[in-house]
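Bug report

Summary: structure tokens for 5-hydroxytryptamine receptor 3A-like differ between web form and batch submission.
Environment: batch mode, default settings.
Steps: 1) Submit the sequence below via batch. 2) Compare with the web form result.

Sequence submitted:
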Amino acid sequence: MVQMWTLRILLLLGGVVAERTCRFNDVVEHLQLKRNSDFFYMSRPVNDYRQPTLVTVEMSLYAILDVMEKEQRFLPYVWTVMKWKNDFIWWNKEDFCGISEVSVPIEVLWKPDISIEEMVEKDKAPHSPFLLIRSNGEVELQSDQVLVITCRMKVYKFPFDTQRCNLSFKSILHEVKDIQLVPKASSRKVTLKSKEVMMTEYEWLFEKITVKNFTTFENQDKVVYTVTMRRRSLLYVMNFLLPVLFFLCLDLASFLISHGAGEKLTFKVTVLLAVTVLQLILNEILPASSNRIPLIAIYCIGIFAMMLLSLLETIVVMYLMKKDLHPETPKEEKEEEEAGCVTEDTRDHNMFSHIFHRGHNHHSSTGETQSGLMDEMHFHQNTGYSTQLTLTDPCKDPDQGDNLKVILDELRRVEQGLRHLRNPDAAGCWTIFAKRLNKVFFTVYVAVVTAFLIYVYLEWVK
């Protein structure tokens, strides 16, 4: 900013008004910056080499551009101001119409080699080409920077996590006997100013900035600004946590589906695959270098494991109930088959004899032999099963042997249907055991799910 101060000295000498005009170049020429710029640029500007240069640092956070958990990086937009004393630059502002500060090119004067320790990429924002010098010898350097900062992300409580990233200002070469770094403002003032000028926060909510300075073991001064920010977790809750919880509720509701239907097994497999897809999405978000398994990963893996156990339990229960619906071949028939003595005609004949003899004995004891036999015939007609067999030699007609196997399987189902019609409430021992197992497993399953969800919730909120 060019400022022009005009000093008018009114001298009543023959009615002539004398005017004096001051320029910034007058100050520059007085300081001899043009002719002897090397003198000011080459070395630390102190009268005594034993005297350290005191550098004050001030930083304000203007925006949170991005936080990359996968790459462990933090992108802030900051404004920094550094001030120090140059013992060779001073002037009496009264001699120059009250000019108290002048801007000069940044290459003219010596600057402290202050850098940000965590910065991993060169700043791409254009820097100010000027320094501001004051009449008392103070030099000020202002710059806005888009930084790429390496930051150790703690994602254990993701997406309810709070991240803290450091910006450490220190000299590259000089020790504390040469350059002393001190913060200009307190933590509270820096936080208030940053909240006033904050432009954007991405998906984060800026909380505070803490400032501290200390001397490192390399005997160098360091000023550390710690940015604390909290993640806005609502989007993750709606798009990830609740869908997984809904899938778990669907798995619990699947216990109401009858085991006799194959849809129950298909339904559980579909829900399990849906949770697997969400886990793949989560893997793209979380960093692989985390020291602790994040709670959200424990949440997904735990629910996935419980749903997998529920699926295995359903398979076992359906297998046990099938054992009553499809009884095994009698032992004597197995022995005859192994010896090669049983033909399809013999097995069919034995099956028919078993069915009709059982129906005859049962109805003879109740006085309903004819009506029972008619019920069986009526059942065959309603179910579409035929009781007419053409007994031929399967060795002569292989197709006929295959047909007899199919008919034998159907007759076994007919036998089970007849048993169920006579006593609908009766169930086999395997079916009773399977139902008891399912009831016990459901009780334990609900208890374990409840305890697991409470544990995850308490870990997230503490």
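Above is the batch result. After comparison, the two runs are identical; trailing whitespace caused the diff. The chain has a mean pLDDT of 78. The chain has three domains: 6-232, 236-325+441-461, 331-422.
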